[in-house]
Amino acid sequence: MRSLRTLISQSADLRVFSLGLIWSILGTVAVRLTPMITTILISHWFGIESVGRFGVTYSTLVSATFLASTGVNLMATRNIAAYATTDPGTAGRLAGMALLLVAGASVLIGLAIFHFSDAIAERLLRQPELAFYLRVISPIVVVSALNNVQVAILNGLQQFKTIARLNMVMGGLMIASVPIGLYFHGLTGSFTALGCAYLAGSLITAPAMLRALKTRGIPIAFRGALSQWPMITRYAIPALLASILFEPVNWICTTIVVGKPDGLQQVGLYFIAMQLETLLLFAPQIVVQVTIPMLSTGFGEHNRRRVLNVLGMGIGTNLVIALGFVTVMMLFGNWFLVLFKLDPAQHWPIFMVVVFASAMIAGALPLGQVPVSSGYMWTGLSITAGWAATFIVGTWFLQDHGAYGMVIARAIAWGLQTLIYIGFTRFAIGRTPSASLPRPA
């Protein structure tokens, strides 16, 4: 029998997947932990209502960043991975176009948030005191979006080790500076420190991105970059619309609940529940980051065997992770609630829904990348639109149940989306030529 080392050395896909996963996990830990650490400190120092204020404002920042960059990021990762070897000139123009579009979009969105902060806080959120914090985060949108698109380009080049090192540096800056800013200047200080960390991240990522492009022989080009506009209509626009439907839907649902008499407390509780989801899906989402360029290459080569191998590795890895975190939360979940100064007897049902929904999401995440990787972007948009509509409608009908109603609506939406992803994956793989499958001996 061949040894495991021999098997791994003979499987390029498994080797790339394993190394990419290890480096991505190392690099993402600190970045993902920062919001959770900040939430814990706010709950202890300022109370659950302040968690609600932080949650609504941070959700606005994340939603605005997604709106400015996610569609272009997916386009850049997918197509730079596809063209890096076969057509370096096109890959360079795609990188240039991605940077130009994200810079322009993030500036416009940041200015809009700053200008309409009072209207957003008073009319939409019905919390006038949040207007000041919205103005504070408006410039952070720009540096956060620029950092994201640079990382997306590196991801398309499968520079997982470089991304990991950059994330460790930026994550260290966040963990060191955000709590200090929170301690001395409250929520204003925490957001200011967060913005400085993103700015530092953008400044150190830019030269790393340029070096990676040069190493692959890809000349980044801004002149003529817009000649790649068909990539925008085919990939970025549907991905952008999907991001509008996906991430900001959390913000929409919080606006439904935040106006209730105890709205800030319920939003704070929901935000803490989402920190648990973020913790549980931390590793599965990294698996997805590794699989996107590999799936894109497999579909680009019309290689059904490679697509099935990558999906099998991604889903299998995520299901093992999901089983582990469900077991851990069943045994030690009360400690997590105590960490946020919550009552386990009162709030445990909310977090159990989140735990089991996260396990389901973990298994479905690799399937969610099939529409992007196979080129069916508009189909992926339609699936995401269904998820968004289900979540919003469910929250509207369950709004009197506060945070519990929101997590129930979210779980239902994910359940329906998972079933649809399974059906579409069967369709997409069936459309991939079977000639790439190995012939029987």
UniProtKB/TrEMBL annotation:
InterPro entries: Poly_Biosynth_Transport (IPR050833). The keyword Cell membrane applies. It holds the Pfam family Polysacc_synt_3. It is a multi-pass membrane protein. The chain crosses the membrane at residues 21-46, 58-76, 97-116, 136-154, 166-185, 191-213, 234-258, 270-295, 307-336, 348-368, 375-397, 403-424. It comes from Pseudaminobacter soli. GO terms for cellular component: plasma membrane. Keywords: Cell membrane, Membrane, Transmembrane, Transmembrane helix. This is Multidrug resistance protein NorM. The keyword Transmembrane helix applies.
